[in-house]
Specification:
Largest sheet: 4 strands, antiparallel
Mean pLDDT: 88
Strand content: 35-45%
Strand order of the largest sheet: 6-7-10-11
Number of strands: 11
Number of helices: 0
Length: 92
């Protein structure tokens, strides 16, 4: 899955695509705030988009979305400070 991005304007779209076969991505939901340069994290069941730039302002939003179904993300918290271009990590 991929969320957010920039092309003339910030995006809030969450796209899903399969690793099992070659196919186009599908729009399955939206982030809570349209932003670019987010960091992506994941668990086995959820994806997270954190930080980034919303408009011209750094963001501290942490969004969570499920892999099990198509749905919009929910705002589950904030980073301690707004960050853009941060690297994402994954827990085990």
């Amino acid at each position: 899955m991929i969320g957010g991005g920039f092309s003339i304007t910030n995006y809030d779209v969450i796209d899903k695509f399969t690793f099992a076969s070659d196919a186009n991505a599908t729009d399955v939901g939206n982030l809570t705030v349209a932003r670019e340069e987010v960091a992506g994290q994941s668990s086995s069941t959820y994806g997270y988009s954190s930080g980034g730039i919303a408009g011209f302002i750094g963001s501290n939003v942490i969004d969570k979305f499920t892999f099990a179904s198509d749905a919009n993300a929910t705002d589950v918290g904030n980073l301690t400070v707004a960050r853009e271009r941060a690297a994402g990590q994954q827990g085990g």
